[in-house]
């Protein structure tokens, strides 16, 4: 995971300001993410991490600043337009259709790539049938990749929490993204589930070449797999760099760790 700074910049965040009434959620925040790296956003609760992901994905519209993805200014583009450009995400709180099967949930992630209209798709013949076969083949590849073949026809709401998180990751991958935003993908997981998720994230990055922006509280995971990090506190950037640089920054240790560097080490 070295040399990421030599790769082209894929996402540029410049001077982002986000307010909710009189509350400043993000104040003048800026950073760049290079193509193919694992980039983490860390900070205490309420630091603005999820707000930043929401700005990148299009859920929030900042009052000031710009967000550029592969040369496109996406600052005020809707979420669907960003998804078409190749930005996908998962959520801290699972956002699946609990009454549908695993396969159907993942297929929903292919919606932006479907060319057939609703009427033609309902008839299910000719080009429509061929298109659906292609989409299902793409989804089955993701099912194999994330090792969820055994639950592919199960109703999502009946699955254990860790498996639901994996299904949500599968749905994001169904968009065929260039950049994936992961909001606390290991939250609420046991050690075995966490280790599986870490492995999948690294495989997504290394085998599929997808850039990853990760928000995660497990500092052992963050320091192990990140190329670079940005550290937030009260919506402002207080540190940025490699894991080694961030661990050594006095302002980060003071604000994020209360003077204790040991929380960065191990799990």
Q: What does this molecule look like?
A:
- There is one protein chain.
- This protein starts with 8 loop residues before the first strand and ends in a 10-residue tail after the last helix.
- The chain folds into 2 domains: 1-86 and 177-267, P-loop containing nucleotide triphosphate hydrolases (Rossmann fold, 3-Layer(aba) Sandwich), CATH 3.40.50.300; 95-176, Rossmann fold.
- α3 (102-108) runs parallel beside α6 (161-173).
- The chain has helices spanning 49-57, 79-85, 102-108, 118-123, 127-145, 161-173, 191-206, 219-225, 243-248, 250-257, and strands at residues 9-20, 23-34, 38-42, 64-69, 72-73, 87-89, 179-183, 211-215, 228-233, 236-241.
- It has 267 residues and is an alpha/beta fold.
- It contains 10 helices and 10 strands.
- The chain has a 6-stranded mixed sheet, sandwiched between helices. Strands 2-1-4-5 form a 4-stranded antiparallel sheet, covered by helices on one side.
- The longest helix is centred in the middle third of the chain and has 19 residues, at 127-145.
Q: How many strands, what sense, and barrel or not for the largest sheet?
A: 6 strands, mixed
Distance between the termini: 20 Å
Q: How many domain modules?
A: 2
Following the backbone from N to C, one meets helices and strands in this order, namely: EEEHEEHEHHHHEHEHEEHH
Q: What is the CATH-assigned architecture of the largest domain?
A: 3-Layer(aba) Sandwich
Class derived from helix and strand content: alpha/beta
Shape: globular
Name of the CATH superfamily of the largest domain:
P-loop containing nucleotide triphosphate hydrolases
CATH topology of the largest domain: Rossmann fold
What helical percentage do the residues reach? 25-40%
Rg, nearest Å: 19 Å
What percentage of the residues does DSSP assign to strands (E)? Answer: 15-25%
Low-confidence stretches: 117-121
